[in-house]
Design goal:
The protein is an alpha+beta fold and 279 residues long. 32% of the residues lie in helices and 18% in strands. The protein has 8 helices and 9 strands. The strands form 2 sheets. A 6-stranded antiparallel beta sheet has the order 1-7-4-9-3-2. It has a 3-stranded antiparallel beta sheet with strand order 6-5-8, with no helix packed on it. Helix 2 runs parallel beside helix 6 and helix 4 crosses helix 5. The longest helix is centred in the N-terminal third of the chain and has 24 residues. The relative contact order is 0.21.
């Protein structure tokens, strides 16, 4: 009991220290163009903003796509056709200069810093294939991520996303704010699941399906999401989905041990060659 109380007091002190640091950093936040302020406003309101590579217009986009599709062509075929639960195939592509160059464009980092409210840490990138499934498991369950108090993950679709490919789906944060009882009920259910995730039927009890937001779009769709503070999941699909996952937190994050997956040896990676070394 004493250790539990000590942990809770320590966590509260840490949260207060972070809030104070965020308040002190306000005067140092980079300025944003009006179009980027619209992204920030949407993130603050609902925790998610969807756009396209074309609309973002970052200078490094063409090299990013060239490198990403080359990496995709090099991924081994997954040997999982007979499995009941086909877990994602993930490659770490943080070392690919053209991909990291896009991820660390100053304009992008400025948007994220304004949202997180503190100096930003870019952790890395996963190239991920999600496979067809007829039921919810893993990240197909509703969940929230835990790397930091505020997280921005950018999901970049490398194939068209529709109902068949299982789009990213979320509940707008305005519907589950700290001042709404739904927040406490849903996160109690998450706690009951040991934070492994909850299924659609549980969520429907307090948030109607008509209020869920689904992020469909063509290849090149870009989703900014605070995956800590927005309940989200991938939907059940009949065709594979292919996405780049970029991860950003404050520097340092609350739980740095959860961020190592973006650069360590947990997932395979391909060798660099001249086509991948474009910057």
């Amino acid at each position: 009991m004493l250790q539990t109380i000590q942990r809770k007091v320590s966590a509260l002190y840490s949260d207060l220290a972070c809030a104070l640091a965020r308040w002190k950093h306000r005067k140092n936040l980079p300025s944003l163009a009006e179009c980027d302020r619209a992204i920030l406003k949407a993130l603050k309101k609902d925790g998610v903003y969807a756009t396209t590579l074309s609309d973002l217009g970052l200078n490094s986009t063409s090299k990013l796509l060239q490198a990403a599709y080359h990496q995709l062509s090099q991924m081994e075929k997954a040997n999982n056709d007979e499995l009941d639960e086909r877990w994602p195939q993930i490659y770490t592509v943080t070392d690919i200069p053209a991909i990291s160059a896009w991820a660390t464009e100053k304009r992008l980092l400025n948007i994220i810093e304004n949202y997180i409210g503190l100096p930003v840490k870019f952790h890395g990138v996963h190239l991920r294939k999600d496979f067809p499934s007829d039921h919810q498991f893993g990240t197909l369950l509703w969940h929230s991520d835990a790397e930091d108090r505020r997280i921005i993950k950018i999901f970049l679709s490398l194939k068209d996303v529709d109902e068949k490919t299982g789009p990213f789906e979320y509940i707008p944060r305005s519907l589950t704010s700290l001042f709404r009882w739904q927040y406490y009920w849903l996160y109690y259910k998450l706690w009951q699941s040991s934070y492994m995730g909850i299924d659609d039927e549980i969520v429907k009890k307090v948030i109607p399906q008509s209020a869920w937001k689904s992020c469909k779009g063509p290849a090149g769709t870009v989703i900014f999401a605070d995956t800590k503070n927005v309940l989200h999941h991938g939907t059940v699909r009949t065709e594979e989905r292919v996405t780049l996952f970029f991860c950003y937190t404050a520097n340092p994050p609350e739980r740095p041990e959860l961020c190592t997956q973006y650069w360590d040896d947990r997932y395979p990676r391909m060798e660099l060659n001249s086509a991948q070394e474009l910057v």
